[in-house]
Design brief:
Layout: E1 2-9, H1 15-26, E2 31-36, E3 41-47, E4 53-59, H2 64-67, H3 69-79, E5 83-90, H4 95-101, E6 106-111, E7 117-123, H5 125-130, E8 136-141, E9 157-164, H6 167-174, H7 179-182, E10 186-190, E11 197-205, E12 208-211
Protein name: Glycosyltransferase
Keywords: Transferase
Pfam families: Glyoxalase_3
């Protein structure tokens, strides 16, 4: 179990403009992602060190975005003005989460221009919608070289998260201590009785720390 990425829902001016603001703040160039046909969404990627990345995502005008929980989550966060939507943990085995949550993981995919395809299974988006402090879980499949963090070399590191919520709640959700997937990513837990979710993310960049 390890932290994989953080997701940011597009603001009112759309995916390109939102991505440009974040990439400029970090002093890097973003990488074009692609369409998630099963979810009715599309994304842009900012690769980071340590096998992490930032996903900036928006909904398409497509029925899938209303039906798929991931599309619903993106649409709701963008409708509220956009911003940090959630964080994701990569695991080797989704079966314990499927058993605990009482439902099956769903497949995800997006294709590259050269025909290669990024594929994965994910679960937990409904939990994130209900309680945005908790991560969702995914299992990557296929070629590891296609992992979004490998799209371009990066010197930007995700150093810390500020999350409204409690470590105890997320530990309960994951089934093991929340520190396990975070490794050297620090978390400041605030407002445990307030509205939950990621409040900010801090990165180490070439010009010093940047908080978004």
């Amino acid at each position: 179990m390890r932290m994989d990425h953080v997701s940011y829902a597009s603001e009112s001016d759309g995916l390109a403009a939102t991505t440009e603001r974040i990439a400029t703040a970090l002093g890097v160039d973003a990488v074009r992602g692609g369409v998630h046909p099963r979810f009715g969404t599309r994304n842009m990627i900012i690769p980071l060190t340590d096998h992490h990345y930032v996903e900036i995502v928006e909904c398409l005008n497509h029925p899938a975005s209303d039906k798929a929980p991931f599309g619903q989550a993106v649409k709701a966060r963008s409708a509220a003005g956009g911003g940090w939507m959630g964080w994701c943990v990569a695991v080797e085995d989704l079966a314990p989460f499927e058993e605990r949550l009482g439902r099956s993981a769903v497949p995800g995919n997006r294709k590259f221009p050269d025909g290669q395809e990024l594929v994965w299974q994910q679960i937990g988006i409904k939990g994130l919608i209900a309680d945005p402090q908790v991560p969702y879980m995914l299992k990557w499949e296929g070629d590891p070289a296609l992992h979004p963090s490998q799209a371009r070399p990066s010197s930007v590191r995700l150093s810390s998260l500020t999350i409204a919520g409690s470590a105890e709640r997320v530990t309960e959700w994951l089934g093991e201590p929340v520190e396990a997937p975070l490794n050297d990513v620090a978390v400041e837990w605030i407002a445990p009785r307030g509205t939950p979710g990621i409040m900010s993310v801090t990165f180490e960049t070439a010009t010093g720390p940047v908080t978004i």
